[in-house]
Write a structure and sequence with these properties.
alpha+beta, Alpha-Beta Plaits, 20% helix
Length: 123
């Protein structure tokens, strides 16, 4: 019987073990998503927003813009709310860290493919 080389031994060992990869994007089960992942920008609790514009001032890429809106439409007290131009966002989390009311957050959503630039404006 011929001796097995290192490659054949490794092949036999891996053939008997469980798969090391995940069938992504068909299933997200088994993905190793790190805690604290900076993903999609969200305007979490609009009723808490004071319209202070700190998020707009601290954004290094100029991705956040405060727009005027009707308070009853967006549940804001001030008539202003931030929007994010996600095509400019560098996911630095500076807006979320600077927000005194924790209104802005970066959630763990990492699938961010867009078909047009207009879709990248997050309200």
């Amino acid at each position: 019987m011929p001796r097995l080389g290192k490659m054949q031994k490794e092949l036999l060992k891996s053939a008997q073990s469980k798969a090391a990869t995940v069938i992504y994007p068909f299933t997200k089960e088994g993905l190793n998503i790190p805690k604290g992942l900076r993903g999609r920008w969200t305007y979490a609790e609009p009723e808490k927003c004071t319209g202070c514009k700190i998020c707009e001032r601290v954004c290094p890429s100029g991705a956040i813009e405060m727009i005027e809106c009707r308070p009853e439409d967006f549940k804001t007290k001030t008539g202003f709310r931030p929007i994010c131009h996600f095509d400019r966002c560098v996911l630095c989390n500076q807006c979320a860290e600077s927000c005194p009311r924790n209104v802005i957050r970066l959630d763990a959503e990492f699938e961010m493919a867009f078909l047009s630039r207009d879709d990248m404006v997050i309200y």
